[in-house]
Every structure is written in C-alpha cells, then in structure tokens.
Amino acid sequence: MDKNEGLDIKYINSYSEDTLLETGQFDYVTVLRAWHWFDSEKTLSEVKRLLKNDGTLLVMDSGFLSKSKLIKDTLEIIKGHMPTGQLKPAGTKAESKQTINGFPIEWFQEWKENNFDLQETYKFTYTVSFSAEEWCGRVASLSWLTGFTDQKRTEILDGIYNHVMNEFGEIDHPVEHGCYVTILNKG
Length: 187
Known about the structure:
Keywords: Methyltransferase, Transferase
Strand content: 25-35%
Radius of gyration: 19 Å
Number of helices: 5
CATH topology: Rossmann fold
GO molecular function: S-adenosylmethionine-dependent methyltransferase activity
InterPro entries: Diverse_substrate_MTase, Methyltransf_11, SAM-dependent_MTases_sf
Structural class: alpha+beta
CATH class: Alpha Beta
CATH architecture: 3-Layer(aba) Sandwich
Domain Methyltransferase type: 4-58
Number of strands: 6
Strand order of the largest sheet: 1-2-6-5
Largest sheet: 4 strands, mixed
Shape: globular
Family: Belongs to the methyltransferase superfamily.
Number of domains: 1
C-alpha cells in the first residue's frame, strides 16, 4: 500500500518487549488490538525507552458489537470447535473482572505505576459491511482461532462461510464495531 502512495516505509519485524529501535527518538508509540498479548512490564519498559520525555502512548482496541444472527451463528460455530465449548477473553483480558471503555481496570493501575499519566480515554462506534468471504477474513483475525492448526482454522472458516452463504445468501452484512482509545503521557 505504501508503495502505491509513493512512500518508502521501512518495516521492522520485532517484539514489543525488544523493538531494536533507537532510544528516546519517538513522539508516539501506538498499540492496536494487542496489549493483552504483551508481557506488559517488559513492554512498558521498552515504551519508556523509546519515547521522548514528553512522548505519548496510545493504546487502542476494537471489536464487533452487533448481536446479529450473523455474529451469534459465527460464535456458535467457533464454540463448537473449542476444547471447552466456551469462548473466553484473550490474554490478560481473561483475568479482569471490570473494564473502563473496553480496557481492563488493572491496565490503568499498571500504566500509572509505570509513570504514564492518563490524558484521555474514549470510545466510538463504526459500521463495516462484509460479504461472506470478507466476514471470514475478519473472523480469521480473532484470537480464538490462533490455537488451532492451519488446517483446523481453514476447516472452521470454511464451515462459517458455508453457513453464511446457506443462511443468508450473497448479501452484505453491516456489523457495528466499537473502537476504544486510551491516551497516556510519559511521566
């Protein structure tokens, strides 16, 4: 995509806990749909190392909100393949009992203890329309499917695709999503 726009972006593939980037050179560090997977203590140390003194950490998450038949059916199909027959929150989200704007309350305390000052947290909704094939692409990004082999994941997604086509036909499905944002300044 960047090449199509005439941009030459250097991509670095590394871990959040050890990015290999230069110290104190960045105004912003952003995290989207991933904080719950990180070793947060190591990641916070790395974020503090990367940011300039007045730098900003943006933590964002998103997910679908709709309670439509499409989503209910999709989740039932996935549950049918889970060893426990249940869908649990991913990563550290599973340990939390309460959230603020979609973020576990424990994260706010952890950020505070690591000298990140909460500036703002907010949420908004948006709708994305999906064909059956696009819906399966969206579902493929769900953390619940990461524990399966490629073959099993393909089997599950094929089952979802076939169900959606049989149940709804070739229509687009509007799916409401929530986006949650927390802005923190390095203290």
